Amino acid sequence: xxxxxxxxxxxxxxxxxxxxxxxxxxxxxxxxxxxxxxxxxxxxxxxxxxxxxxxxxxxxxxxxxxxxxxxxxxxxxxxxxxxxxxxxxxxxxxxxxxxxxxxxxxxxxxxxxxxxxxxxxxxxxxxxxxxxxxxxxxxxxxxxxxxxxxxxxxxxxxxxxxxxxxxxxxxxxxxxxxxxxxxxxxxxxxxxxxxxxxxxxxxxxxxxxxxxxxxxxxxxxxxxxxxxxxxxxxxxxxxxxxxxxxxxxxxxxxxxxxxxxxxxxxxxxxxxxxxxxxxxxxxxxxxxxxxxxxxxxxxxxxxxxxxxxxxxxxxxxxxxxxxxxxxxxxxxxxxxxxxxxxxxxxxxxxxxxxxxxxxxxxxxxxxxxxxxxxxxxxxxxxxxxxxxxxxxxxxxxxxxxxxxxxxxxxxxxxxxxxxxxxxxxxxx
Length: 428
Description:
Organism: Streptosporangium roseum (strain ATCC 12428 / DSM 43021 / JCM 3005 / KCTC 9067 / NCIMB 10171 / NRRL 2505 / NI 9100)
Protein name: DUF7847 domain-containing protein
Transmembrane segments: 112-135, 164-186, 207-238, 244-276, 311-331, 343-360
Pfam family, one: DUF7847
Largest sheet: none
Strand content: under 5%
Radius of gyration: 33 Å
Helix content: 55-70%
Region (Disordered): 1-84, 404-428
Order of helices and strands: HHHHHHHHHHHH
Mean pLDDT: 76
Distance between the termini: 64 Å
């Protein structure tokens, strides 16, 4: 029967009738747990753990056994990270970065491979012409060895002109391609696509900054190289013996290689910063320097691995065309038709290899930038929040590009500062 206050004889006063009664062991309390109370057997200690382990003290929960995901707090593996686009929205591993660079190409192949093919052809054609002339002269030298005795027949332009022109073209074209691909990558992280026109529209105002970054990078590399050459030349002019020149030269080369690796690694993210965060030249360099600072060796290792992969891929893709070009040039013995065929084959091989390696390298650099921000600034929280909203709306809005700009969207609550080291606890 009810006492008029919502309680019954089965529930204590003040306790709702639709809730289970609280169990207690207080002396004299009528509300005791099942199997307890007067006349109940005393509690038994828990069984001993196997393998000779000690059981935890009575009344404490047993420790969690480590599983394949580590010791989960509730006995369940952690949920997988969100992956609306080419990468999971969490700090990235090496496999995530390489896989994401490949998925970048596959996510928008017409735009990415089309742009890369144009840039690769512009850089490969001058080199192909010079190499075709040299191979043709080698073929002609089989019948007339005097062709090879006079270096003027080959000429400086045929030997080095194509390479110099190719470097000049790549300086312009590859810089523009890197900026456009970085902008496409910023959208592809959320699963969105971007046309060539839209990517160029968003990137063209960053072109002066990109050229400034490349120019400063070349200057930073050339100055120590000139110093090394000047020191060696000065020692030679002073009459130093060969052993001293060799020792100084070897040490200088090793020092320059270490310097080049250090500088290029610390500044590797500057292009991504300039495009996605819309910063100036000096600010982009400073930002890249600070972001890489917490993970220098990891960044260096990934960049070296990427260079090795791209070199092997380029060799495999261009090797058949190079062999066919050499055979055509040697059989044609310098004829106009054979030189044209040789140049075409070499250009095709260089274009095919570069149209794959260029976007792959750009993708790795862009994803390294995203990874460094996730680790240093908890930027993955910003990306996850935006991805949830985009999934709710059912599409990727162009405003997602603004998420990369810290002046518009801070990287996590209270975790961003101008040094890029706002959350060192995530930097692992």
